[in-house]
Amino acid sequence: MSETLTTLLGQVILVIIMTCILGFILAFAMRICISDARRRGKSPALVCIACILFFPWGTLAWLVFRPDPKDGPGSGFSLEYHRLQ
């Protein structure tokens, strides 16, 4: 009886830990999707639905077919802005 209870408790704890890890990964992915969609002038809700619910094909489609940012294609990180004089 004690071994069964210990095994069951271990499995429950493992499921809780895995659920928390998956939740954190999902929250991080949604945050990235929302910021990228806003930067590119698209609906954040639609991009999240495509990237999260239709994973991995939705994410791949967004990465391939996403438009340039509103500020232009070179508006991302530029080393020239961070060089020390």
Question: Your description of this structure?
Answer:
- By secondary structure, the chain is mainly alpha-helical.
- The protein is built from 3 helices and no strands.
- It has helices at residues 2-40, 44-53, 57-65.
- The model has no long low-confidence stretch (mean pLDDT 84).
Topology:
Blueprint: H1 2-40, H2 44-53, H3 57-65
**Helix share bin:** 55-70%
Main beta-sheet strand count, sense and barrel state: none
Total helical segments: 3
How far from one another are the termini? Answer: 71 Å
Order of helices and strands: HHH
Number of strands: 0
Strand content: under 5%
Uncertain regions spanning at least 5 consecutive residues: none
Short description:
By secondary structure, the chain is an all-alpha fold. The protein is built from 3 helices and no strands. It has one domain (2-68).
